[in-house]
Design a protein that fits this description.
- The chain is mainly alpha-helical.
- It contains 2 helices and no strands.
- The longest helix has about 35 residues.
């Protein structure tokens, strides 16, 4: 791989990381908004439980994406 291709790959990787970070921030805001909507009724409690499950799933997915990003950066270098 020549230097130009490596630079293009690195730029694309950086752009993907930025996009992923922006999407992650949007998801966090939306999850917080969902958490605020839950009430004290049974339906509200169910909604809170579902949001907690969604939140933990998002955290796990973010971790996986970060690991993949690190692996890609190492492979580019």
């Amino acid at each position: 791989m020549d230097d130009a291709a490596a630079q293009r790959n690195a730029a694309q990787l950086d752009e993907l990381v930025e996009d992923t970070s922006a999407l992650s921030a949007t998801l966090k805001r939306r999850v917080k908004a969902l958490e605020a909507q839950g009430g004290s009724s049974r339906d509200g409690q169910v909604k809170k439980q579902q949001v907690r499950g969604l939140s933990s799933h998002i955290v796990l997915d973010n971790f996986r994406l970060k690991v993949k990003g690190c692996i890609c950066q190492i492979q580019v270098r």
